[in-house]
Design a protein that fits this description.
Blueprint lengths: L2 E2 L3 E3 L5 E2 L12 E2 L1 E3 L1 E2 L7 E3 L2 E5 L9 E9 L2 E9 L5 E5 L5 E7 L5 E5 L2 E5 L6 E4 L3 E3 L18 E5 L2 E5 L7 E4 L14 E3 L9 E7 L2 E6 L3 E4 L21 E3 L2 E6 L7 E5 L5 E2 L9 H5 L10 E5 L2 E11 L2 E11 L4 E6 L4 E8 L5 E7 L4 E6 L4 E6 L2 E12 L11 E3 L2 E7 L5 E6 L3 E4 L7 E5 L5 E2 L2 E9 L5 E7 L2 E3 L4
Parallel strand pairs: 3-4
Antiparallel strand pairs: 1-45, 2-44, 5-36, 6-7, 7-44, 8-34, 9-10, 10-11, 11-12, 13-14, 14-15, 15-16, 17-18, 18-19, 19-20, 21-22, 22-23, 24-25, 25-26, 26-27, 28-29, 29-30, 30-31, 32-33, 33-34, 35-36, 36-43, 37-42, 37-45, 38-41, 38-44, 39-40, 39-43
Length: 494
């Protein structure tokens, strides 16, 4: 005799995405799949993300942004973008007005920049360092950073500021050397023979990135991280986790987060306050290991990170998870809520920056792989900017959310019958569906109201089920509040 089971209800989505965990241990409020949903807009609900918009215009179609930085000095705010010029023979620097302000840089070289004492410094490891001020423009000699001084290293591709000193690294002649200036005085940087060699002769590779936390500068190699407080490095090697690229390292909120592929079976995202890094993408109760394992080896050196509200996000390229290919993925971690989510975009982001625009808004922008700088999370914009046949266009935001596999506490075959119930806001047009035994997908008629029943086109039978909702948005943000499956019966035997 068939047994009527308790209804399935999920009315809490506050734990976000959890992937790579036995479903019986999945945290309450988590889901097995979530594409383009945020979980912190209304705690407990899942809400689709805002849209994007272009800053300025397309620079060079099909080319990737190699560097992105906002020069802010007093009331001056200028956004600089580095990109290969047409023909890819050299790289150039654009401002946000679309004007080329520097030419003749070496093509395909990432450019890192910092602003200090009202001046911006740019390095790429091949060309001479150059600096910018509003009054003096771009220079390669003299200026606020005393370029051309015999003591300044000229072939570094990493830069940061710590305790009023400018630090440079990435010198191929001295791959373990961290250079530093004198303490800034009266807005002028002076150089002496100041440097420290970090673990020279070890097998951890060259210095690949610099980070900061309160009290320390962090020096990353391919397979190690060391902290330095100007007077000493202690311990010499903090832990055997490094990073492949500066762009993956994000310092914000008193901590530093980064991607590491130093250990084949322990790659992922980590966070540190200056102590031993702690994994946030795996080896905890809310992992996303299957998404990390899906990152392509060829993309690891181009992972780019950014700070978000109380957390971090990383652009990781195309990934295939559970036999499904997702393009231009951004993995997002909310530190306070210990919560992961996944976004996809029309193009891949290669670098991020904050930008104080002409309206006084401080926004997050990203350089992409199609010669554009994109503003993220544009207020009251519910579509993504895209270039279509060389012309600006718009694209709806696709979304998909799915519960963990549910077997209702029994190994018996079960049958879901009659209907499902969804509570949403702005959910009209969304398509409910059921995945049966990870094989068959059954789609229902689209939702026609915010709280409503949808009839099943057939009554599926299987061992376990996932219940989902997908579609595309262009006129607002969908909020999912509850999924209910009221009618489930179990067969008398397995």
């Amino acid at each position: 005799m068939e047994k009527l089971l308790n209804p399935f209800r999920q009315f809490d989505f506050s734990a976000g995405l959890v992937a790579g965990i036995n479903e019986s241990l999945a945290p309450r409020g988590s889901v097995g799949l979530a594409i383009n949903f945020d979980f912190d807009v209304e705690i407990g609900s899942a809400t689709t993300r805002p849209g994007t918009f272009i800053i300025g215009g397309q620079m060079v179609a099909g080319n990737s942004i190699l560097g992105l930085h906002n020069h802010v000095a007093g009331s001056t705010s200028t956004l600089f973008s580095v990109i290969n010029d047409t023909g890819n023979a050299t790289a150039v620097i654009y401002d946000q007005a679309g004007d080329v302000v520097v030419t003749g840089l070496t093509a395909n070289k990432k450019v890192r920049m910092l602003t200090f004492n009202g001046a911006t410094l740019a390095v790429n490891g091949v060309d001479l360092p150059r600096s910018y001020t509003l009054a003096g423009g771009w220079v390669t000699s003299g200026g606020a950073f005393d370029l051309g001084d015999a003591d300044i290293p000229t072939l570094c591709n990493l830069c940061t500021v710590f305790l009023d000193r400018v630090y440079l690294a990435g010198d191929t002649t001295n791959p373990s050397r961290l250079h530093y200036s004198n303490v800034s005085g009266s807005g002028v940087i002076e150089w002496a023979v100041g440097f420290i060699d970090i673990d020279v002769g070890n097998d951890k590779g060259a210095i690949t990135a610099l980070g900061r936390v309160p009290g320390y500068i962090l020096i990353f190699k391919n397979r190690s991280m060391t902290r330095w407080n100007y007077s000493s490095a202690f311990p010499e090697e903090l832990i055997s986790y490094g990073t492949p690229s500066q762009e993956s390292v994000v310092s914000a909120g008193g901590v530093c987060a980064f991607y590491s592929n130093s250990n084949e079976h322990d790659k992922g995202f980590f966070i540190t306050n200056g102590g031993a890094p702690v994994p946030i993408s795996h080896d905890n109760a809310r992992p996303i290991r299957k998404w990390v394992d899906a990152i392509q080896t060829a993309n690891e050196a181009n992972i780019a990170g950014r700070a978000i509200n109380n957390g971090f996000a990383w652009s990781v390229g195309d990934v295939t998870v559970d036999r499904q290919l997702y393009h231009n993925v951004e993995l997002r971690y909310k530190r306070i809520l210990n919560q992961w989510s996944v976004r996809t975009y029309p193009t891949k982001f290669t670098v991020y920056a904050s930008y104080l625009d002409g309206q006084g808004r401080n926004v997050t922008v990203a350089g992409d792989t199609d010669g554009c700088v994109i503003e993220l999370d544009r207020p009251e914009r519910w579509v993504d900017f895209v270039m279509k046949n060389g012309e600006p266009g718009e694209q709806s935001i696709n979304y998909d959310i799915r519960t963990h596999s549910e077997k209702f506490g029994l190994n018996n075959l079960k049958t879901v019958s009659d209907k499902m119930v969804f509570e949403t806001r702005n959910g009209q047009g969304s398509t409910p569906y059921i995945v049966v035994d990870d094989k068959e997908t059954i789609e229902c008629a689209s939702l026609d109201r915010d709280v409503g029943e949808v009839k099943l086109p057939k009554n599926p039978t299987g061992s376990y089920f996932q219940f989902g909702l997908r579609g595309s948005m262009s006129n607002g943000r969908l909020t999912l509040k509850e999924i209910e499956v009221p009618n489930v019966v179990a067969s008398p035997s397995i």
